Amino acid sequence: MLKVENLKKTFSNVVAVDGISFEVKRGEILGLLGPNGAGKTTTIRMILDIIKPDQGTIKFDGREINDEIKSKIGYLPEERGLYRKTRVMETILYFAELKGLDRKTALERTKYWLKKFGLAERANSRIEELSKGNQQKVQIIVSILHDPELVILDEPFAGLDPVNQDLLKDILLELKERNKAIIFSTHQMEQAEKLCDSICLINKGKLMLSGPLSDVKSRFGRNTIHIEFKGDGEFLRSLKMVKKIDIYSNYAELTLEADTNPSEILREIIKYVDLKRFEVKEPSLHSIFIDVVSQGVARG
């Protein structure tokens, strides 16, 4: 489907994107990950032919991006661009017709997606009357209404509460089942971990980590322990066999030093807290993200 090779873009003396390569296939979700200023949005804009790369190639089914191919792409920008005084139904139909849909088809699809997103009763409301979350849902509808083959979503979960995040997750999985290729950029590692088949992690314009999510996680080994507990977990920071730790109110993720036996950690933990869960597994995508970005070392 979409293949990006050795993409590079420089603005003045700043290298925004430096040799990025990745591929996304039909029926696959790719997470384009990275901290603020990493080059994610610049990469997306080059894919969409909004700006031209200084170097590299972008191919859609082996062809360069042109107007015909652009009509097969759905795009949700991070910046919100709805006309605040217009009504919801009017807004969606306007964008649908820009994408070449006839009025009858556009109306049928608009009603379907408004109902799907729980917005049917707000069809005649003005955009400015909607909450930020509902405005986000309208923009998502606009990006997928024309049934694109490739869907690119820049921070799609922004402004959505947990209920609507789950709704969007289900819709993305539905699009995947319909053999759509999906690229989404997000800071929410939990959502990326649930949804992505593969990831592309970039930092300061450089590719730091890429590949199928299962392969990426296996590269970081199985020396991570996830625990749930009741009590004060601050003592965990003093354990000598722990290389890295993330502690929350009743949950912690511990990365062990090499050759540490997890049973040693278990024996220590049960001395101090009421243990609810103890699991040895691969590190979370959140942990990997923090590790790679903070160290600034590419991991293939």
CATH-defined architecture of the largest domain: 3-Layer(aba) Sandwich
Low-confidence stretches: none
In the CATH hierarchy, the third-tier topology of the largest domain is known as Rossmann fold
The CATH class assignment of the largest domain is: Alpha Beta
* Biggest beta sheet attributes: 6 strands, mixed
Please indicate the percent range of residues in DSSP E strands (runs of 2 or more).
25-35%
Structural class: alpha/beta
| Elements, N to C (H/E) | EEEHEEHEHHHEHEHEEHEEEHEH
> What is the CATH homologous superfamily assignment of the largest domain?
P-loop containing nucleotide triphosphate hydrolases
Q: In what order do the strands lie side by side in the largest sheet? A: 6-7-8-3-9-10
* Strand segment tally: 14
Large-scale geometry: globular
| Cα separation of the termini | 22 Å
- Domains, number: 2
Helix content: 25-40%
Account of the 3D structure:
The mean pLDDT is 90. 35% of the residues are buried. This protein has ten helices and 14 strands. It folds into two domains: 2-216, P-loop containing nucleotide triphosphate hydrolases (Rossmann fold), CATH 3.40.50; 222-281, Alpha-Beta Plaits (2-Layer Sandwich). With 300 residues, it is of the alpha/beta class. A hairpin with a 2-residue loop joins strand 4 (55-60) and strand 5. It is globular, with a radius of gyration of 22 Å. The chain has a six-stranded mixed β-sheet with strand order 6-7-8-3-9-10, with helices on both faces. The longest helix has 16 residues, at 162-177. It has helices spanning 40-47, 67-70, 88-98, 103-116, 132-144, 162-177, 189-195, 213-219, 262-269, 285-295, and strands at residues 2-11, 14-24, 29-33, 55-60, 63-64, 73-76, 150-154, 181-185, 198-203, 206-212, 224-230, 242-247, 251-256, 274-281.
